[in-house]
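Exercise: predict the fold of this chain.
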Amino acid sequence: MSPLTLTLLSAITCCSLAEQSSNVSPPNIIIMLMDDMGWGDLGVFGQPSKETPNLDAMAAQGMLFPDFYTANPLCSPSRAALLTGRLPVRNGFYTTNAHARNAYTPQEIVGGISQDEILLPQMLKKKGYVSKIVGKWHLGHRPQYLPLENGFDEWFGAPNCHFGPYNNSNRPNIPMYNDSEMLGRYYEEFKIDKKTGESNLTQIYLLEGLDFINRQTEAQRPFFLYWAADATHAPVYASKRFLGKSQRGRYGDAVMELDYSVGQILSKLYSLGIENNTFVFFTSDNGAALISAPDEGGSNGPFLCGKQTTFEGGMREPAIAWWPGHIEEGTVSFQLANVMDLFTTSLALAGISPPDDRIMDGLDLTPSTPWTGHQPIFYYRGNELMAVRLGQYKAHYWTWSNSWMEFKNGINFCPGQEVPGVTTHTQKEHTLQPIIFHLGRDPGEKFPIRSYLDVLSRISPVVEQHKNNLVPGLPQLNMCDVAVMNWAPAGCEKLGKCLKVPKSDPWKCDWPH
């Protein structure tokens, strides 16, 4: 079997899902989405410290994806893409306030996931799945945007990043939720010591995940667990047991604890005897944040730049699929795949057809769907298509790392990796003569190919078709307002944690990157 054409479950040992009888229980689904973890952070991808034994074992027991991508080089849009199966420019998780700007959901954002979108847990309900998110949501923090309003049955985690601490006067600390009500706030009831990096949050998230798996298995209900731990996002944290253990410093400590947690979850599946009926996928929301490295940022391996950019380091992710008895051990798939494929593939595993009233960007990677060749990878930054990959070739239609102003103020998304004419600090358009790299020979995007007409003749029709079929969603990330911050989340009355809501004063959000 050629690894170049290997689809996700091509080594499946049972009958195809489409042929299974109706009384067969659909598989449980676990998606583990890390935060700012880079392609080069795993031992199986060459990290010299070899401090991810559980993830490396997961890859040895399953399938590794060296060519797996996110849908955006920033957290919120990539998460929206995973849960909707659609590019952020379609599902509304982008901004039109400025050209080619990344945007996300800080607590002053007015918008959130559009009510017109259909999320994965909503679809899975058709087959009786119980769904839980553990960890970071990041698709809007106002009541109508929260997980239980968008298909999830349970939630333990936070709506925003764990930035802080704040004084609760000019800006409130971020709340932690149990289902629809807050339990407390970061830096208050849920401690993160920014000086030492100590926090028990990953252990809490692990226990929440294990408890959910136990309960649904006992009830004999199919489940979807979306485990979105965020310890590798600055400020990085780890519990006392893991602090100081890594050769890589505090960031490595966080990775080691996440690796341990993955091992515990997989062990739980074995102990319950449900490993053969549980599909698990591990990946990250975007590339490592090199601006925080090395103390609080990871590694993107051989790839150029990192988070916030549409170079390979910003969007190529570590990815592992695991399903004993269904995925052949130790396999590697070099097919191009992306986080939106998890939406469509999860539905296929559950025996559910994807929505037919909208364009879906994710493909079904199971063998029941004939593989017709390379799917393209579209690299968006805000409202602009920056680059396209087809096969081994990547064509840049726009290049930009960040502005000269930001760069001179010490914000550098490509430290030590400046490539003249490529990692530009002004937005450069190359539409008439794209910059093209062969990523097999040049994964670091340093040497543009010179003879490119044949390549362009293959990529150009793909780009033209994509743009002709593109109907952008209403942008959700344009407006900000201090009054919509987490002043008085549901449940704050019971805890005495409600804060005074200031007067509304909306403005257009400023997105510098």
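Check your answer against the key: The CA atoms of residues 115 and 438 lie 40 Å apart.
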